[in-house]
Amino acid sequence: MTLTRRSLLALTSCFAALTVAGGWANAATTSPDPAAPADAIKDFALGSPDAKVKIVEYLSFTCPHCEHFHAEIFPKLKADYIDTGKVLVEYHEVYFDQMGLLGAMLARCGGEMRYFGLTDMLYDKQRDWAAADSVDAAVVELKKFARAAGMDDAAVDVCLHDQKMAESLVAHYQANIAKDYPGDTFHGTPSFIINGTQYSNMLYDEMKKIIDAELAK
């Protein structure tokens, strides 16, 4: 999925005026406060903190290309490099729409311990919730993932109605983009920053060559 500077500004306005039936992920009727505690939001990572190669993945939970990456490529990356301590992968979430924001809020409901398991469910069942006819229908599906992860509906309701969290996530996402992709340099998901160098979506063999070159340095 692609995101230009123009669409990023439109997305900011969309979140600023967002009013969702039932109050789901209501990002308030004013622009996200730049002073919102965006720095309190943590980007979760898999792998050894001492890994020689760090990959920052920009992903959207509603992006079909991201789903494909996590279904077909990520398992190989995890087995070959993450589980062996050679690579650390840090997730930076991108929100193209309110469904993507809801998915991120659900993934974060259980904290870091449940985050990656819920992320896997969001991608495995992407068609069931991301393409739902309504936000309420999507929430029904999201609660199924939460129950499977050992969370109850009441806790999930609190998470998905957390307006301040929604605002902080959007502010954090915008800060990440501004830092890593100044100007109009960010164009879509999945995107990768491997040891400081930007890359667009790629096949596993291409990523493997880049990683091996970094490990050889």
Could you please describe the fold and organization of this structure?
The chain is 52% helix and 11% strand. It has 217 residues and is an alpha+beta fold. The chain has a single domain (5-206), classed as 3-Layer(aba) Sandwich (Glutaredoxin). Strands 1-3-2-4-5 form a 5-stranded mixed β-sheet. Strand 4 (191-194) and strand 5 form a beta hairpin. The longest helix is centred in the middle third of the chain and has 19 residues, at 64-82. The radius of gyration is 17 Å and the shape is globular.
| Biggest sheet strand line-up | 1-3-2-4-5
Number of domains: 1
Beta-strand content bin: 5-15%
Classification by helices and strands: alpha+beta
Helix content: 40-55%
Give the CA-based shape.
globular
Rounded to the nearest angstrom, the radius of gyration is 17 Å
The CATH H-level superfamily is Glutaredoxin
Spans of at least 5 consecutive residues with low confidence: 3-22, 26-36
Distance between the termini: 33 Å
Q: How many DSSP E strands?
A: 5
According to CATH, the fold-level topology is: Glutaredoxin
- Known CATH architecture: 3-Layer(aba) Sandwich
Mean pLDDT over all positions: 85
Q: What would a concise description of this structure say?
A:
The protein is globular. The chain has nine helices and five strands; from the N terminus they run αββαβααααααββα.
